[in-house]
Amino acid sequence: MNLLTPLIPDGDEGRRWAEDELADPSYAIAEPTAFDRVSRAIADAIARLFSSEVDGEWGLVLAVVAAAVILLVIALAFVVWGAPRSTRRAGPPAAALFGEDDERSADELRSAASARAAEEDWNAAVVLRFRALARGLVERGIVDTPPGATVHSFARTAARAFPADDDALEDAAVAFDDVRYLRRPGTADMYTRVAGVDDAVARSRPAADADTLVVAG
Known about the structure:
The protein is mostly helical and 217 residues long. 62% of the residues lie in helices and 2% in strands.
């Protein structure tokens, strides 16, 4: 029976094998980082500080010194590495509003609507002011308008948070539909109604303080 003879390297060969093995990236990943080493050193120093029993005023002094050191380390960590990031990622701001991408804020949409109203461009004024109404509730975290949401589903959802404005919200949705989709001419009265409910909702607190209400498609 043949037996395999183990390969025994000489000194130089063994050192080269060891160097090649330690060059493997997996060893580098396992090594502690500079931050790990500093943290461990600080923790060991604080542990040694409290490892000996100290009575009286010296014990209080050591406790104050240790607390100051910990606060200083935390402050330095914030300066060097910044504040810790939340584990929950914030989603990208919703740009789509009832079939059209528009990244303007509620205040910007209101300003644009007012400018169109001053020019008596009631069609654009009505549409922009309704978008401002929706964007305002999104910015406040009260209502979320995912892509595909309709103005009427938005009005019904918003009415759950503002039940006193139920009819006014639906009326504003009808005005938006008439101008945007049915191609009916907008009027100053339609704009006034949409602006009125937008102002009323902006001044009010929602009746439901639960999670954000999501508009159904």
